[in-house]
Automatic annotation (TrEMBL):
GO terms for molecular function: exopolyphosphatase activity; metal ion binding. This is Exopolyphosphatase-like protein. The keyword Manganese applies. It comes from Lophium mytilinum. Residues 387-409 are annotated as: Disordered.
Amino acid sequence: MSIPRRSLRTFLITAKDAIRTAVDNSQKITFVIGNESADLDSLTCSILYAYLRSSCPPPHAFTPLFVPVANIPASGIQLRPELLALLPHADIEEKHLITLDDIPELSSIKSRLRPENTKWILVDHNALQGTLGSIYSERVGGVIDHHDEENKVSADTADEPRIIEKAGSCTSLVTEYCRGAWDAISDTKLSSGAAHAQGDEAVGDGAVRTLWDAQVAQLGLASILIDTSNLQSKEKTTGHDVTAAEYLEAKIMACTQVAGGFDRTKFYKEIDTAKKNIGGLKLQDILRKDYKQWTEGGLKLGISSVVKSLNFLQEKAQAEANGRSTADAFYSAVREFADEQELDMYAIMTTSTSPEGNFQRELLLWAFTADTVATAQKFETNATGELGLESWHGSDGRSHDEDSEKDWRKVWRQRSVQHSRKRVAPLLREAMS
Ligand SMILES: [Mn+2]
C-alpha cells in the first residue's frame, strides 16, 4: 500500500500525527533520522528520504509511512537561520518539523514507544548516538551516509539501503537513491480531490505535481549547494553532488511558478548568508548550534563547528561578559559549555573568510583531565602534518589551570582547509582509543 501523493506540508502533518497514533495504539512506526548536529544536510535528507519513500514504499516495508525526525529538541530550530530561510521555499513552517520532543521516550510524554515497534533509517550518520542509541540501536535497519564507516549497522538491511559513500552532501546520495521513486510519483496522476485541496481550481494536476516537486527539490538543492560551496569547492564536490544538483534543478525549472524567479547562485547566496547570520545568537547557542559528541575509551569528546572566526567568538564573549578581558570571558564561556556537556575534551572548529577572500579554518582543542592531556598531545603529534596545524593566537599549548597541571589547551590555524569535522573527529577519536 502506498500513501497517496501529497504536498510536503500535508505529508509532515500526517507524519507527526502518526507518532501519536503509533504510541496510543502500540502500532509500528518507521523513523528516518539525521545526525545530532542537525545541520541543513541532516535535516533535508531525512525529509527527502521519508517523503519520497512514503510515496513509493518497498513491498515489504516495516510500515508504508516513513517519519522524518530532526535529531534535536524543537528549541534547536531557532538556532538554525539557514533552515528558517529555507522553509518558505518548501512551503513549510517551523511547527511542521518533527523533532526529538515528538518522541515519547525523550520527552515528558509518559507513554511508551516500544523498540520492537520501531524501525530506524539513519541518514547523514551511521551509528545512532546518545539516549536514542541506547534504546533503539538494535532497531536500525538502513543507512545512507557520507561519514566514515562505524560498522554499527548490520550488513543486511533487506529492502532498505546500506550506502556509505564519499559525497559533499548526504542529500546528494539520498536524491540519487530515491530518483526512481520520485520519477514514478511525478508520472502518477493525482486524484481530483488532492488537486482540489490545493485550493486553486484553475491549477491542473500537472501544475500541482510540478509545484510540489519544485518545493521538495529546493529543500534538497539548498543542502547540496551549502555543502559544496555552490558546487565550486573542488575538495568537497563529487560526481554524486553534480548529478543530484542537476536533477533537482531540473525539477525546479519544470515548475513555471518557481522557475521564472529562480537562479541557483542567488538561491545559494540567500541560504549561505542566512547561515552566517549568527550575530543575534548567544555564544552558548552558537556552540550548541552545530555540535557533536562521542565517547571513546570512557572519555567524552565534543566538537562544535562555527561559521565565524575565533575573534568573532571572543568579541561576542566579551560583549556578553561586560568588561572581563576578551580571552578570560571567552575561555570561561567555552569552559561553561564543556562542563554542561560533561566533556573530558572539547574542540571548536571555525571557518571564515580572510580579508583577501580566502577560506580559512581555526582549531581550538582543550583537554580537561589528566587522561585527555596526553590524548590531546598525541593528537597534535599525529595530526599536525595532515591538517597543516600552525600555532595561532600566541597559543603554546601549556596548562592553563594554575592550581594543577591537569588541563591543556591550544589553538591552531588549520592550513589544510579541506578537512572538516568529518576528518578531524576521527583523528581525535583515534588518539583517544
Ligand atoms: Mn552531511
